[in-house]
Amino acid sequence: MARRPMMAANWKMNKLVREAEEYMARLLPRVEDSAEEVDVGVFAPFTCLKEVARMAETSRVIAGAQNFYPEDSGAYTGEVSAPMLKDVGAEAVIVGHSERRELFCETDGLVARKTARAIDSGLLPVVCVGETKEERDAGEMWDKVSGQVREVLERLGDISGGELVFAYEPIWAIGTGDVASPEDAQDAIGRIRELIAGIKGREAADAVRILYGGSIKPDNIEDIMAQPDVDGGLVGGASLEVDSFVALVEAAR
Ligand SMILES: O=C(CO)COP(=O)(O)O
Predict the structure, then answer these.
(1) Which domain holds residue 135?
(2) What's the whole-number mean pLDDT along residues 106-135?
(3) For the segment 8-45, what is each residue's pLDDT rounded down to a tens digit?
(4) Which residues are catalytically annotated?
(5) pLDDT surpassing 90 at residue 2
(6) Is 77 contained in some domain?
(7) Is the torsion defined by CA of 78, 80, 84, 88 positive or negative?
(8) Does the structure's ipTM exceed the value 0.85?
(9) pLDDT at residue 217 tops 80
(10) Which member of 105, 110, 127, 237 has the greatest number of CB atoms within 10 A?
C-alpha cells in the first residue's frame, strides 16, 4: 500500500505571531502544488497556532501543535487540551518529542496516554521516539526505541486507518548536524514497522507513516527519502526558513 509522504516543520520555541504570519504568507503559495501529493505540516507554538491554522485553512497545509495535556479541561495550570487545540483549528499534534521527554520529564506512559487521547479527540498524533548517543554506542538502540513504540501501541485500538504517525528521531542527530545515515534511518524505521506488524497486524504496519527527524537538510533529504520505509521528515532547524522547508517538501514528492 502506498503511503502518502509527509514533511513536517517543527518550529520548536521559535517565531512571534508576526513572523509566523510572514512565513505562512510566503509558504502557502509555494507548496500549493506539492501539497496535492505530500502532507505538509506546520507545528507551531501555541501563541501563533491560531494564526497559522487560520491561514492554512484554505490550503491543504496541516496546522499542528507541539504538545498538549491529555485531559479536556480542569485544574491543570499552564496546560492546553486537545479540544483547545481543535478550537483554534489544529489538526495534528507532536507527542513525546525528546526535548519534552528530557527537559519536562515526560514518561513513556504519559506519551502513550497523550497519543490515545489525541486520536480519540480527532487529532493526528506525530509520536517521537529515539535513542541517545550513549544508548546507541552501548548497542541499546532497539531496546530503547522498541520500548517507546510498544508502550504507545499497547494503549491503542485498531490503527489500520493510519491513525497516528511515528517519527524516529535519534537524539544524537537533533540539532547537531550529525544526520543519521540513510541505512541507519531505514534500519530503525523498518524495525519499527515490523514491530507494528507484530502487535497490530500487517494492515496497520502498512498504513502507519514513519518519519525520520534529526539534522534533515535539503542536501541530505533525498537519500533518506529513498529508503523504502521512510515516509517523510520531521524538521527542526531547516524548517525555520521558508526556502529550505519548501526544498524539503519538494524532495518528498
Ligand atoms: O527535533 C527535530 C524535529 O522535531 C529535529 O531538529 P533538527 O532538524 O533541528 O535537527
Answers:
(1) 6-251
(2) 98
(3) 999 999 999 999 999 999 999 999 999 999 999 999 99
(4) 97, 169
(5) no
(6) yes
(7) positive
(8) yes
(9) yes
(10) 127
Binding residues for substrate: 10-12, 175, 215, 236-237
Distance 2 CA to ligand 1 centre (A): 26
Q: Considering the domain boundaries, does residue 54 fall inside one?
A: yes
Tell me, using a 6 A CB cutoff, whether residue 232 lines ligand 1.
no
Q: What CATH number corresponds to the domain at position 89?
A: 3.20.20.70
Q: Could you tell me if residue 30 is inside a domain?
A: yes
Instruction: Give me 148's grid cell.
Output: 517507546
Alpha-helix residue ranges (DSSP H) falling in 157-201: 182-200
* Residue 99 CA to its chain's centroid (Å): 13
CA–CA distance, 126 with 65 (Å, rounded to integer): 10
Amino acid residing at 167:
A
Average pLDDT over residues 66-71: 98
Q: Quick one: which atom of ligand 1 is closest to the CA of 99? A: 1
Atom 7 of ligand 1, residue of closest alpha carbon? 236
pTM here?
Answer: 0.98
In a domain, 1, yes or no: no
DSSP for 2-65, written as a single string: PPPPEEEEE--S---HHHHHHHHHHHHHHHTTGGGTSEEEEE--HHHHHHHHHHHTTSSPEEEE
Q: What percent of the chain has pLDDT over 70?
A: 100
Residue 153, Ramachandran bin (φ over 0: left; ψ between -120 and 50: alpha; else beta):
alpha
